[in-house]
Write a structure and sequence with these properties.
180 residues, mainly alpha
Amino acid sequence: MAPLLCGTFLAASSILCVNLLIALLTDTFQRVHDNSQANAMMQQAAVILQVEESMPLLRRFYDDHYISNHCAPLADTYDDDITANPRYHDEIGHITAQIKETLDQFLVLQRDMETVGGSGIKTDHNHDQNLQNQELQNQNLQNQEFQAIRAELKELRTLVQQLVQIRTKSSEKTEDSSSL
């Protein structure tokens, strides 16, 4: 009789311990899962702020809320069922190349501004006037280049908006034709 009671006690206590372990793991998983969405949002916000801080001169071209208004990471959902359109991908590749060229030009201008801003002060008055004239010419040239970059960025923005409109119209047409 004693071995039967001892075996029953060990079996019941092992089942109880396994159930307690499952309950603890479930509770821990639930807490981690609840915090994962908040952590993801905080990490994305930190990355966005880091990108904004790393481009102080580019931020002047846009208002302070441009990235949060137009580049929100969770604003648009990703659809895996979109069929690939080769013409669309070629256009996107062309626009991406244009954006990269524009940003490269901007970085070159930014480096030029840093080298101009870091020059030392000379004691010679004529030399100072020459440097001021050169700086004014450089600033005028840079302002013209910045205006050209702004115009290119506006043009790129309109191209992207046109592509998005074309994409939405073509997806609406495919949806309409598939529903018939």
